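Please, structure for the following, as tokens.
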Amino acid sequence: MATISKYQLKNGKTRYQYNIYAGTDKGTGQRKKIHRRGFTSYKSASDAAKLVEAEIISNKRNVTPQKAWNLGEFLDYWITHLKLNVKEGTRIVHRENIETYIKPRIGSYPLTEYTLVEHQRFINGLFSEKGVGRKKQGLSWATVKSINGTLSNALKKATQLGFIESNPTIGVEFSRKFKPQKRELRYYTLDEVNIFLETAKQEQQPSWYPFFLLMFDCGLRLGEDLALRWSRVDFNKRTLTIDQNRLYRAEADQKRQLRESGEVIDDSYLSITLDNPKTEHSSRNVPLTARAYTALLELRNKQSALQKVVTINPNLQSDPSSDFVFRRFYLTAGNVGEPISSRGAEGAMKRIAKNAGLKHLNVHGCRHSFAVRLREAGVDMENIRDLMGHVDLTTTRMYAEVTPKIKEDAMSKLEDYLNSSN
């Protein structure tokens, strides 16, 4: 039985929370409790608690894997109890694929009866289903590949556990007619980068120019850029220490859950979610270019000149958010607010490109442009790999592709060689 109680925020607003007894841990003998807070009404807290209680009852009925499970039930068990040794960002992608695409369409299939025939029909349908995807004519190639990856991963584990004899996703084919023919813009040329950055300087928010500059000049991933803190910037050595990644997908998932529970979204109590970098090689020290060093120094001075830094979570006893490098400026109020969001970065990228008269490039393309610049500058692949934090050269080659400039330089060297031999 859930217990609902109310409490007050520092700003005087009333919020509700619930506590649920979830049984006894068989390993420790201690009582297990589930606690959630932040609801704006008694009813929203009560409704959310009832859903959790129903889930607890369901889990108690299925405490051991049953071959009678349908596909949806197994996927719930897999993502909750079996898929543990992965980054939270990866888990969020799997959850989204399961809840949004898989369960509504094939979740009721008995686990042992889902075959390659059914799976091929499911994949084909995703490509052509009306009313879904950006153009409402079916899902994209990349999205369908991701959904198939989730199912393949889960059913591989089902095979290992002996729930099914073989993985029904093995052997599935993807029709080439749905593969995008036109290659999306993956990087900017050096001139385009400079035009973009000059336009970014005109933005009302002072954070955007140095934010994108670190991606173009230092190759930071979006999550690494969002997670950067002043304590990781060494102005003496002119380097950045990359040792954390911001899980912006987890933050978006938190907002979604709050909306579904009837909560009013207020950044004053949303938490910033950090994790270790993507891979072991992602932890690295990155040298700053001269203009990146200058931009960060100017940003720090601008932040220091304002009256105060506003904490984003007054419910926390200590709020580390004031150490984040890239935060929103509220110039009229004379303060620096919450750290910028991934959604804000995507919007700024699109807006700046439009104002600069450039074709749209997604945010990840900034990092791609960094790799291309390194290769055009003649940096060897091993050093490009280390600067980007890749595990192996295969991934690096996907980024540091051959560009027209590289081809021209190669042919110029050939011409010089041929001329010297005459």
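Residues 42-61 form the longest helix (20 residues). The longest strand covers residues 14-24.
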